[in-house]
Amino acid sequence: MQTISKSKSTRWALRDVLLLAFVAVFIGFIFWVLGPIYNLLSAALTPLGLAPFANEILLGGWMMAAPLASILIRQAGAGVLGEFFAAAVEMLLGGQWGVATLLSGLVQGIGNEAGFAVLGYKNWGWGGIFASAITGTIITFIWSAVRDGYGSYHIGMLIALFLTRFVSLLFFGGVLVVAIQKLIEKAGVLRRD
Amino acid sequence: MNPLIKFTTVMIIALELTFIKSVTINIIVIGVSAFLYLFLKLSWRQWLWLFILPLLPGFGSWFSLMYFGTGDHVHMAWVMLSRVFAYLWLGGLFTLKINDERDIFLATLEQKAKLSATFVYALVGVLNFMPAVSQQIKTIRVASQMRGQTLHIWQPQLYFKAILSAIRWSQNLAEGMVSHGFTEGAVRTHLNVVTIKKQDWLWLIIILIAFQLLLVPRWY
After folding, report:
1. Which ipTM score applies to this complex?
2. In a domain, A193, yes or no
3. B79 in contact with A at a CB cutoff of 8 Å?
4. DSSP label at A172?
5. Cα dist. B51→A109, A132, B68, B84 in Å?
6. Which of A38, A44, A40, A77 is nearest to A60 (CA)?
7. Number of domains in chain A
8. Would the CB atoms of B154 and A51 count as touching at under 8 Å?
9. Structural domain of residue A82, as residue ranges?
10. pLDDT (tens digit, 9 = 90+) per residue, A59-77?
11. Which of A7, A12, A14 best probes binding to B when mutated, by most B CB atoms within 10 angstroms?
């Protein structure tokens, strides 16, 4: 790829921005396919008052765009932008939360990227990925306390919700992303300059 | 109204709604949105969408807050139910028209909000690829089913194959854009120059001030 800019390290190259946006759209669509399953699950749980668990179980999946963007592009801001794009896709496809999807996407992106930031944007391997799952859980849970009214739950319910979300993020945002990274490295498709 | 101004207004109010625990405010937001929809000439499908979509997440929160809540949880249950509707009805003012207004929205982002042209044109390119992305995911799954494997969302292979497509398409699109004369960081001229009317700014200010005044009586 020949472009005008030579200083790739400081600004966003066209190819990176496009890769980021494509990854976000792909993840957005994969989880859009999940929509009906999520709706069935949450409809089944609604009369029991356990509908938030449907959200908690799948949240890690919705948040996958952030760690994937981070490990692919390895730049500060990639996680936030990736998750924000994915949220925009979900909103455009007609998500149930309307514009609030964008706000949540921003919070999720920041939460997830915080993990890589804490490690000084140096660890893009499993260490950074798991750190991002941990910060992602904590920060999005604080957001849920405000937006989803979690602040009004019993402490037992809160702990159960938190643990479910943590497990979901550890699996989708941790184990699965590490496995994907291994596949990518084995295939050698990403050339880093 | 310029779509970016509309977007800004909607986002600010949505952010405030997140912190306001008031059923009254939520219902006022829904009511004002409903009033505005009367002028937007929605199809019956869009009306149906507005009514049905929030039911599930709304009642999901309502039931669980009723069962497992503490403190003022009954009030909070109603707040959550009305909040989900308020988010969607408020957001719909922007999202239901975005298909017609997408080009102006992106052009405003570039020309007025001074967002880098790389981001704006990358977005334009990728948004046009959305139907192809949806098709590609189906292709990936069908291709593996032909070999007797079903790719589930918890299998890394599904994402790996999606990422391979993303890498290939992003490189192709980048080359395509550059070969059509897109130069990163270059000063661009515009065929359609976007202007934001003074009255749009005025509406933004009036709506936001009116909304803050609504909060003054502290109904929550």
Report:
1. 0.82
2. no
3. yes
4. I
5. 30, 37, 26, 11
6. A38
7. 1
8. no
9. 14-185
10. 888 888 899 988 888 888 8
11. A14
